Amino acid sequence: MINQKLIVLFLLLLFLIGGFCGCTEQSGIKTEEVISENSGEKNNNQKSQDSIIQYDFPSNLEIEYFWNDYFTEPRNTITIYANGTAILETISGTSKEQRMYNFTKEELFDIYVEILNNNFFKLNETYARDIMILDGSCSSLKVKADKVEYKVSIFNYKVEEIENISQKIISIL
């Protein structure tokens, strides 16, 4: 009898913590987790082994990723809009070049999922290490989604979450 009460109490505690709840809130971005019935087994219809995460895609999504090395060329900025339009601007010396890209809905969704899966909206706003090093690197990622706007700036520092997101963006170009 005590074992059953402990099990029920434990399950209730897990439910309250959110383990089985299925709905979470991330900085104003609504997410819903659907737990797999055959948890732990690989399934080709799943994004991961344990669950599929479904996201509400923001209609006003805007992503701006900037990267370069300090005082060296080129300086690159890509801005991606919710309609799939993307503009890559490269500045080198006095020349400025712009290229237009069109991302599919699936590509936009993949980038957005990468942003959420890497907890972008919970990262520090600045990561810096010895900003007096003139030949270091810098980058920034700014995301507008629904009512949330968040920017992360990086100076001479490697942030794995930003690396994951930027690699996803660059791989689609």
What does this structure look like?
The protein has a seven-stranded mixed beta sheet with strand order 7-6-5-4-9-10-8, with no helix packed on it. Residues 6-52 have low confidence and may be disordered. With 173 residues, the protein is of the alpha+beta class. The chain is globular, with a radius of gyration of 20 Å. α2 runs antiparallel to α3 (160-172). The chain folds into two domains: 2-55, no CATH class; 62-172, Mago nashi (Mago nashi protein), CATH 3.30.1560. It has three helices and ten strands. It has helices spanning 2-17, 105-117, 160-172, and strands at residues 23-26, 29-35, 51-55, 62-69, 75-81, 85-92, 95-102, 126-128, 137-145, 148-155. It is 24% helix and 39% strand.
State the gist of this model.
By secondary structure, the protein is of the alpha+beta class.
Structural class: alpha+beta
Report the sheet-strand fraction: 35-45%
CATH superfamily placement of the largest domain: Mago nashi
Low-confidence stretches: 6-52
Q: CATH top level of the largest domain?
A: Alpha Beta
Fraction in helix: 10-25%
- Output the strand order for the largest sheet: 7-6-5-4-9-10-8
Give the tally of β-strands: 10
What CATH calls the topology of the largest domain is Mago nashi protein
Mean pLDDT across all amino acids: 75
Mind telling me which CATH architecture of the largest domain this is? 2-Layer Sandwich
Approximate shape:
globular
Counting structural domains, the number is 2
Distance between the termini: 61 Å
**Mind describing the biggest β-sheet?**
7 strands, mixed
Alpha carbon gyration radius: 20 Å
Count of DSSP-assigned helices:
3
SSE topology string: HEEEEEEEHEEEH
